[in-house]
Amino acid sequence: MSSGAWRLDMRRKEGWCLTPLNPIANKSSTWFSGNWEWLAAAFLAVGAWFLYPHFGMAWDEAQHAIYGSYVLDYFLSGLTDMRWRTDIGGLYFYGTIFDLPSAILHRLAGKDLFHWRPFLMSLSGILAIPAVAKIGRRLGGNPVAAFSVASLLLMPQFFGHAFINCKDIPLATAIAWSVVGILRLTANPSSGNFALCGLLFGLTLSVRIGGIMVFIFFGATLAALGLRSLLRESLFSDLEGLLRPRILAGAFLVALIAWGLLVSLWPYAHQNPLVNPIEAFRQSTGFPTAYPVLYAGQVYESTNLPWHYLPWMLMLTMPVPILVLALAGMALAAGLLTVRWKDQGSEAFFLLLFWLGFPLAYVVLKHPNIYDGIRHFLFLLPAFALASGLAAARIASLINGRLAKAGTWSLILLLASCLPSLALWHPYQYAYYNILAGPRATLHERYETDYWATSYREAALVLHDRQTPGAPPPTVLVGANALSIPCFSYYADKGTKIGIFLGLSGDDPFPADLDYTVAIPRYGMWKNFPDAPLEAEIRRNGVLMCTIRRKPEQPPLPSGPIRSEGDQAEKPARQAP
Q1: Same structural domain, 408 and 501
Q2: pLDDT over 60 at 1, yes or no
Q3: How far, CA to CA in Å, does 385 sit from each of 95, 145, 158, 210?
């Protein structure tokens, strides 16, 4: 058997797929071999339950939690309570598929709105694992699926965002499942698969209206299939099949289910089911507010970033082994598509490349308003993981053909080398940068680190643990805006007086009525009041996340150990968002 050979494998249940000729892929199918990803997801959910208390609150998280509560009150009031529109800023442009179920669960359990949200967010990220495995299996059997899942789990940006990001992680998961639906439908255009695509597309749109890109993915895949038929001189017969009433009805069913699901759970769409979703999409693609963005040591307006901002940030925020494998996987997918373009199943390689290429090309060519690194493009990470898994499986197959299983074990060890990053950056994995970003001690002077203020949780614990017993709660000035207050107050002692500041203070003296300032590096706030003594710095792997300064005349607090992350009973009293 040639180690480099590939074959065309057709299974009625899974459709057509290109699989590598290796012993693992050729084993007879068992329940476990086709469903192990669900067991992996269950195992990860147990781990997430123990990890979620370690993570802080992102600075607009409390606002989203309140939005979900207002939407719940809207439905409970018979669609008359309109606080979701008047009291919550512009969040009504967002879908409710995460915030509403979270509010229902917390209301039923009698918990505050944020209590379980980090865990629920992690579950939404874990649900991407089965989707990635299923796509990987279509690209190259279980070896690709396994290496792809491992690559995704070892990406610190995906891991960290999964506990703090209620928008972009659910969107990434929904898009991955939509790709699963597209591949199922192209393999078997049954009524059930049309309905499944409609459901998955609707869930994607219900996270963010920008999820409408899955329709672009679907249309591009159909266009690729049409081009393939034309080049094979079978376009007429293929079109004849596609134009059957059943197929046209199925396409209508996809749009009807997706739109119906989107509108049914979204109060803003209730006001005008046709116009308002379009207006929300216009707002999301033409976001008017520009933010200052620190990039490569310079500050740019988010509307005027260099064309290479997103590609370079993707390279900086991915472990180097996974990055190298992903780039190799893209080249391999392009090569396989070139060689096997006439075969059924080649659309999986096309869709993977389009998933990666279209958003990047759009950003490079159109220069949309983007910020926060890769946050708005986390949906690309499952595709990068699949490309990495494709290359890893291929390399392992080539080496295994000559040296038994040496290739598989070598790739496992290579990916395992990414594990320390998850531990060293905990719980700020979302702010991870690799060695290409330069020295860690000064990283905050070149790129955004804790731009979401999740380190304010740790800052509150530092002040609590070092506070003199019986002393009155301190007065603390917190950066950056009003949304950041819950990031600190939720974990602070009761009675703590909190103010806010944004940006640089210049030469202003330390306010006399303050005890401390707490600031993340964003907007240069770590430079504020440089003459005030530095009480503490919060760093991970040498990278600055937050600074705590005290007023000059106040003596330093006695240092003490920060309490155990998992010790729920001794944490300071929380303020409900």
Answers
A1: no
A2: no
A3: 27, 10, 11, 22
- Buried/exposed 342-359: b ≥16 CB within 10 Å, e otherwise: ebbbbbbbbbbbbbbeeb
pLDDT band of 238, cuts 50, 70, 90: low
Residue 195 placed within a domain? yes
Q: In this structure, are residues 536 and 577 in contact, taking their beta carbons and an 8 Å threshold?
A: no
| 574 or 400, which is more confident | 400
Does residue 324 belong to any structural domain of this protein?
yes
Whether residue 403 is found in the same domain as residue 465? no
Q: Which two tokens stand for residue 443?
A: 């990283």
Tell me the β-bridge partners of 478.
500, 518
pLDDT tens-digit readout, 450-478: 999 999 999 999 998 877 777 888 899 99
Please check whether residues 332 and 252 belong to one and the same domain: yes
The structure tokens listed for 22 are 């290796």
Rounded CA separation 126/128 (Å): 5
Percentage helix, strand, coil for the chain under 3-state DSSP, each rounded to 5: 60, 10, 30
User: Would you state the structure tokens that stand for residue 5, as one six-digit string?
Assistant: 């050979």
Residue 488 amino acid letter: F
User: CB of 512 within 8 A of CB of 486?
Assistant: no
Query: In the structure encoding, which two tokens stand for residue 238, read together?
Result: 């293929």
Residue 21 lies in a domain: no
The answer on 270 and 332 residing in a single domain is: yes
Phi, psi (degrees; rounded to nearest 5) at 542: 85, -5
Which segments within 363-504 are labelled E, that is strand? Answer: 475-479, 497-501
Size of the chain, expressed as the number of residues it contains? 577
pLDDT in tens, 302-358: 999 999 999 999 999 999 999 999 999 999 999 999 988 888 888 999 999 999 999
* Structural domains of the chain, count: 2
Per DSSP, 92 falls in state G
Residues paired with 499 in a beta bridge: 477
State which residues form the domain around 143: 6-13+37-54+116-424
Give the pair of three-digit tokens for residue 164. Answer: 């703090």
Indicate if 274 and 419 belong to the same structural domain: yes
Which band of pLDDT confidence, cut at 50, 70 and 90, is reported for residue 570? very low
Q: Are residues 411 and 477 both part of a single domain?
A: no
Instruction: Report whether 115 contacts 68 (CB < 8 A).
Output: no
pTM of the model: 0.89
CA angle centred on 42, ends 38 and 48, rounded to 5°: 135
Structure tokens at 491: 């974990």
- Kindly state whether residue 63 falls inside one of the protein's structural domains: no
Query: Residue 479: which of 498, 500, 461 has the closest Cα?
Result: 500
Show contacts of 535-538: CB within 8 Å, 24+ apart.
535/462, 536/459, 536/462, 538/455, 538/458, 538/459, 538/462
Q: Both 386 and 256 in a single domain?
A: yes
Structural contact between residues 117 and 101, judged by C-beta atoms closer than 8 angstroms? no
pLDDT tens figures, 184-225: 998 888 888 999 999 999 999 999 998 999 999 998 998 888
Task: Measure the CA angle with vertex 500, ends 111 and 507; round to 5°.
Answer: 160
- Kindly state whether residues 408 and 513 are assigned to the same domain: no
CB atoms within 10 A of CB 471: 8
3-state SS, one letter per residue, for 213-260: HHHHHHHHHHHHHHHHHHHCCCHHHHHHHHCCHHHHHHHHHHHHHHHH
